[in-house]
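Retry 2 of 3 after timeout on previous attempt. Resubmitting C-alpha cells to design endpoint.
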C-alpha cells in the first residue's frame, strides 16, 4: 500500500497561486499513476489533473487547462499541483490519489479506478 498526505491548501484571493503537495510513503511511488481530484460542497468528486507513473503523460480538466500544472518528483516521493490564476470556482477540497501502474496505456480520470487517497486539503478562493 501507499499512504498519501496532501498539504499546501489555504484561503487565498482570486488571481493568486498555490502549490499543493502530495507526499507518498509505504511503497515505491514511481510505480503509481497519480491524480488530483476536487470536491466542492454538494458536488461530486471530479478529476482536476492526472499524471502517469513516469511523468510522461498528463491530463487536465478543461476548467483548469492553462492555469494548473501537475508534476511529480519520484526521487522525493512527492507529487505537486501548481495552481495559478485561482478563481472562486476552484474552491473545494483537493484530494491526491494513486493507482498502481500495471501496464495501463491511458491515464485514468475516474475516481473509482484509484485505490489510494489522501485526506484532502481545503482550498478556498475569495473574490
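Retry 2 succeeded. Sequence:
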Amino acid at each position: 500500500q501507499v499512504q498519501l498526505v496532501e498539504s499546501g491548501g489555504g484561503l487565498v484571493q482570486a488571481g493568486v497561486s498555490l502549490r499543493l503537495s502530495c507526499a507518498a510513503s509505504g511503497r515505491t511511488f514511481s510505480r503509481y499513476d497519480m491524480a488530483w481530484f476536487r470536491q466542492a460542497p454538494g458536488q461530486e468528486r471530479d478529476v482536476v489533473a492526472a499524471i502517469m507513473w513516469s511523468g510522461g503523460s498528463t491530463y487536465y480538466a478543461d476548467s483548469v487547462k492553462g492555469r494548473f500544472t501537475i508534476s511529480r518528483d519520484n526521487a522525493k516521493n512527492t507529487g505537486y499541483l501548481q495552481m495559478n490564476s485561482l478563481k472562486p470556482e476552484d474552491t473545494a477540497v483537493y484530494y491526491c490519489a494513486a493507482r498502481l501502474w500495471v501496464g495501463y496505456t491511458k491515464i485514468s480520470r475516474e475516481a473509482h479506478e484509484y485505490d489510494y487517497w489522501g485526506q484532502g486539503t481545503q482550498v478556498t478562493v475569495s473574490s
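Attempt log closed. The chain has a mean pLDDT of 95.
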